[in-house]
Structure formats: structure tokens, C-alpha cells
């Protein structure tokens, strides 16, 4: 559908490809496919991911949804983005998604504080 051929290899040797769908939002990028496959096989910690495509003029970069999905498993792992000639650009998940929201942001104490602030605001405005 998109005609963009994309493949991914996790350091854990999980290979994948993009899974497209006529309803674009129902498709699944190669990065999320590889990570989901790895998680389903018991892997939850990653060191690196390599993304390849048939792009010639620029490095393939993960979409926003993939960046957030990768962030779920840490911000300091390496992302190798390549061109079809074999050259690559190396960045971390943190560099691709700075100031990101991750699992640590879901701690109960943080949510309790937010609810308290909202409740206090409602009481003072009420």
C-alpha cells in the first residue's frame, strides 16, 4: 500500500517487517512488529534495534508511534537508522523522543498528586 519496504532487526535477533493494511491505522510498522514478537517470546529489555528500508536519499526513521512504543522498554537503547547503500545513523531512543512519557510516569504517587491538584482546583472554583 505505502510501497515503502521496511525491515527491522533487534539485537536479540528478532527479525520483522511492516504489516500493512488498507486501513492505514490498522497497519503495524516493522519496529512494533519486532518488539511485540520479542515480548511475546519473553524479552523485555533491549540494547539496540536496526531499521532498514529501500530509501536511497535519507535514513529511515521510526514514526512517532514506534518511538513511543520503543520508549516503553527504555530510553537509552540504540537505534540504527540506515539507507539502502548500507550507511547508517545512530541515535538513542531518548534522542529520538526527548522529554518522553514512559512507564515511570505512571507511578501511583504521581497520579495521586495530579488528582489532588484537580480536586483542589475544582473546590476553589466551585
UniProtKB/TrEMBL annotation:
CMP/dCMP-type deaminase domain spans which residues? 1-104
Coiled-coil residue windows: none
Cofactors named for this entry: Zn(2+)
Q: Which InterPro entries match?
A: APOBEC/CMP_deaminase_Zn-bd, CMP_dCMP_dom, Cyt/Deoxycyt_deaminase, Cytidine_deaminase-like
Is this entry keyworded Zinc?
yes
Q: Name one GO molecular function term.
A: zinc ion binding
Query: SUPFAM superfamilies under this entry?
Result: Cytidine deaminase-like
Tell me, which GO biological process terms does this entry list? nucleobase-containing small molecule metabolic process; pyrimidine-containing compound metabolic process
Please list the reactions this protein catalyses. Answer: cytidine + H2O + H(+) = uridine + NH4(+)
So what EC number does this one have?
3.5.4.5
What EC class does the entry list? Answer: hydrolase
Q: Which UniProt keywords apply?
A: Hydrolase, Metal-binding, Zinc
Question: What superkingdom does the record give?
Answer: Eukaryota
Give a yes or no for keyword Amino-acid biosynthesis in this entry.
no
Which function does this protein serve? This enzyme scavenges exogenous and endogenous cytidine and 2'-deoxycytidine for UMP synthesis.
Q: Which family does it belong to?
A: Belongs to the cytidine and deoxycytidylate deaminase family.
Q: Which PANTHER family match?
A: CYTIDINE DEAMINASE
Under which name does UniProt file this protein?
cytidine deaminase
Species of provenance:
Sinocyclocheilus rhinocerous
Please name the gene that encodes this protein: LOC107714944
Amino acid at each position: 500500500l505505502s510501497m515503502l519496504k521496511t525491515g527491522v532487526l533487534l539485537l536479540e535477533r528478532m527479525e520483522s517487517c511492516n504489516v500493512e493494511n488498507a486501513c492505514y491505522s490498522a497497519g503495524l510498522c516493522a519496529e512494533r512488529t519486532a518488539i511485540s514478537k520479542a515480548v511475546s517470546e519473553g524479552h523485555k529489555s533491549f540494547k539496540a534495534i536496526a531499521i532498514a528500508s529501500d530509501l536511497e536519499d535519507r535514513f529511515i526513521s521510526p514514526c512517532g508511534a514506534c518511538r513511543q512504543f520503543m520508549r516503553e522498554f527504555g530510553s537509552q537503547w540504540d537505534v540504527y537508522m540506515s539507507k539502502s547503500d548500507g550507511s547508517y545513523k545512530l541515535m538513542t531512543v531518548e534522542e529520538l523522543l526527548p522529554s518522553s512519557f514512559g512507564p515511570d510516569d505512571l507511578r501511583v504517587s504521581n497520579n495521586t498528586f495530579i488528582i489532588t491538584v484537580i480536586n483542589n482546583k475544582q473546590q476553589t472554583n466551585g
